[in-house]
From TrEMBL, chains A, B:
GO terms for molecular function: kinase activity. PROSITE patterns: PFKB_KINASES_2. InterPro entries: Carboh/pur_kinase_PfkB_CS (IPR002173), PfkB_dom (IPR011611), Ribokinase-like (IPR029056). Keywords: Kinase, Transferase. This is Sugar kinase. It comes from the Bacteria. Gene3D superfamilies: 3.40.1190.20. Residues 20-279 form the Carbohydrate kinase PfkB domain. GO terms for cellular component: cytosol. The lineage of its organism: Bacteria, Pseudomonadati, Bacteroidota, Sphingobacteriia, Sphingobacteriales.
């Protein structure tokens, strides 16, 4: 039994009002697998990098018990590179550079040893590649979670809709939910998106938390109010990785466990934004994680006896 | 013992994407006192109207056990009138007409029978008038809640700050908290605002719920995700009225009761936006209110054992 994470493993340079990084390691699969590793010790990644990717970074994955057999290293090629600048509100950003490099013709090969996968996290990537991964699993995983973004809605909507049909949980942000559904009300948007196929929809609202929709049920999770958001890069991937990692740990898929998984995912995401890149989420202790989850409990809980 | 509500009692005409009203009854004190009346039966209002204000509407207050002895009716004068148009997102609006009329020289006279007031709700109004009310109370009420808006920050900041110093709870929205503090982070904004004087700060975030700050504690309340928001007018006043009405009912001021008060206030506000004006919040049953509060419990509660 294992949790397979597919997505980008890449280089980023990031500018925020707090500073600017050199090329640092990023990518959806990086953040998601690191986050999941705090809850589950059978995390495996499928991704592609060039031979410019530092061996020590691959060793770092292994230190977190993340299996890298599925991480293809392409000799003579360069890793995916993204550069972005955040605005003062930290909610919007401009992409400065996107170099696809190895990602341009990424063929996601699933090692035989990964076929025991019960939990599949499809990190943000071409929907076609996400779909290929599902099709290459000999047995459909028990739970497939898919993250995506507006970019694919703009340029590959048909592929995206076909892939969404195949998954159990879709995670997108509020603007993307509105774009995908054509509905302004998130309740209407959610109900429309759930008719495409997924059983669960998570709408991420950044500093306003997240909403979970399933059938006629809805759960609202808060975000931790932070004095300083240093770098939002990877927060959504970290959230998704923590979410599926927690579910893999508890092993039972139901609405109550999903609610808790959102709180655990949110707790990890709240760490992610406190430093540039993966710096914070690479070095957390179990006590820090449970302390942060307790902060969410204190933040959201009230007792009303009707 | 009573709960005194001061604010506008007025006429509005409202345009939303769903339609347009004739002149209907509105005003901060109208919404707040109606909301409070669902929890507490000693609500008293101080406000001013012209003799164009319908007697049946005053009778309606009394039907809700709202004491109108402090509602001044000015012969030969006209009631305050506001007209606004909401944009498609329902979060922003344009003011089309503001006619101060009787409000221009409003002198808030406190009837002697109101001097037993333990709970004072200062609805949105000139900070100078709000302050006069506090000064005219023979004995400082046990709890003073103040609502205000960006308009007073723009034109009467010194008066506003002086009034804020005197209250226990301030309610403002997120943009206003940022404007008042000069801080983008709501955590930093809250801590700065609490140093002005209030012991509690509630930051209203509309469809994203509300945050309560007190010392180093914070509580995040969700908003109920609604398929349709029909008319947001008065939602903030309804929230504040429900909030203080619930506290007057329970009688003990502490952080836990404040959290519950926010949920009760939010529940009433969620009804308010479902119809134009006061239509919905004038005619609620106790069962509807407790059913809605239960929806908030279901929406926000999770169980994590660490």
């Amino acid at each position: 039994m294992s949790l397979l994470v597919i997505g980008t493993v890449a280089f980023d340079t990031i500018e925020t009002p707090f500073g600017k990084t050199d090329k640092i390691v990023g990518g959806a699969a990086t953040y998601a697998s690191l986050a999941a590793s705090y809850f589950y010790n059978q995390v495996k990644i499928v991704a592609v990098v060039g031979d410019d990717f530092p061996k020590e970074e691959i060793a770092d994955f292994e230190q977190h018990n993340i299996n890298t057999e599925g991480l293809q290293v392409k000799p003579g090629e360069k890793s995916f590179f993204w550069s972005g600048r955040y605005h003062n509100d930290m909610n919007s950003r401009d992409t400065l550079i996107t170099e696809l490099n190895v990602l341009a013709d990424f063929d996601p090969i699933i090692p035989e040893s990964y076929q025991d996968c019960e939990y599949l996290m499809l990190g943000n990537l071409t929907p076609q590649v996400q779909q290929t991964v599902i099709k290459r699993m000999h047995k459909r995983p028990k739970l497939i979670v898919m993250d995506t973004m507006n970019f694919w809605m703009d340029i590959a909507l048909d592929d995206l809709l076909e892939t969404i049909k195949l998954v159990d949980v879709l995670t997108i942000n509020d603007a993307e939910a509105r774009q995908l559904s054509g509905e302004y009300s998130l309740v209407k948007a959610a109900h429309k998106i759930l008719t495409i196929g997924p059983k669960y929809l998570i709408i991420k609202k950044g500093e306003h938390g997240a909403l979970l929709f399933h059938e006629d049920k809805v759960f609202s999770a808060p975000a931790l109010p932070l004095a300083e958001v240093f770098d939002p890069t990877g927060a959504g991937d970290t959230f998704a990785g923590g979410f599926i990692g927690y579910l893999a740990k508890v092993g039972t898929i139901n609405f109550n466990n999903m609610k808790n998984a959102i709180i655990f995912g949110s707790a990890l995401a709240s760490f992610c934004v406190e430093k540039f890149g993966t710096e914070k989420i690479k070095n957390l202790t179990a006590e820090e994680v449970s302390g942060r989850v307790q902060e969410f409990v204190n933040l959201a809980q009230f007792e009303i006896v009707l």
